[in-house]
Amino acid sequence: MASTIAKAIQLETHGGPEVLKLVDLEVPPPGPKEVTIRQHAAGLNFIDIYFRTGLYPHPLPHGLGSEGAGVVEAVGSEVTHVKKGDRVAYGQSPLGAYAQVRNVPAVNVVKLPKGISFDEAAAMMLKGLTVQYLFRQTYRLQGNETILFHAAAGGVGLIACQWARALGVKLIGTVSSPEKAALAKEHGAWATIDYSRENVAEKLLELTGGKKVPVVYDGVGKDTWEASLDCIEPRGLMVSFGNASGPVTGVNVGILNQKGCLYLTRPSLGLHINTLDKLQAASSELFDLVVKKKIKLNIGQRYPLAQVGDAHTALAARKTTGATILTLD
């Protein structure tokens, strides 16, 4: 197979959305453990902004995005679980998902079941697998718990609302507006707290009858750190899995004792699906809920590749609801 020329986004310096450049890239044949995917859609996530700004360092120049879906065009000599023509998706990969064609390590790629579209796959792989590891691995929910989940109307949050409902878990979601509160409830949140108008810790105590919750899932970071700790019952778990408002810094670990001998973890998806078997098991659980319509993907925004800067601006300003994807056809 010869090299392919494809449109892709690259950046040569870190900065604002203006550093995102649409270029023609040469895609070589896949290596022995790679697959070449002609992509139909790619997902946007807050982590992409971290890489664009340099908060997460990466050697320049580089692409962006780690989540996409499309059709296999070629497989490396050692790849056996997918073949040319298969519909596939991935939620973790080296940077470069903002591209029409790309090579991806085969260990990151799973077959897409019938009934799940490329757009849905691009909207759910990273976000859905994030909810899978949070709810089924980091703190394994059994049902009947009451939990707090920040940014419940975002891409991860709306999947979390539905997954919690499917598990019989009461999810209390924080949101920034009445519209987002309605959206979270529509997707299965048991209750919402509007942090722009309400004190999160006080409202949570009211909702739980003063009991607090065994676990808080916090992908917001700096802005919600202290409020999160005030919502956790003694010896409960603080799961800090993102920093949409900036990283949590300068933490005095003694505060964990003062707030009730709390546990703290800072997990990430990569180490939870670091083998093909683990990835396929987590993906199967996610796909099953989607195929059974227990989780429906809310794609709030679609942008063509050339408008990726606008997509980043909207995401950073929290002007989006549900998932944001790039259409690559």
From TrEMBL:
GO terms for cellular component: cytosol. It comes from the Bacteria. CDD domains: QOR2 (cd05286). Keywords: NADP, Oxidoreductase. Gene3D superfamilies: Medium-chain alcohol dehydrogenases, catalytic domain, NAD(P)-binding Rossmann-like Domain. GO terms for molecular function: mRNA 3'-UTR AU-rich region binding; NADPH binding; quinone reductase (NADPH) activity; zinc ion binding. Residues 15-326 form the Enoyl reductase (ER) domain. This is Quinone oxidoreductase.
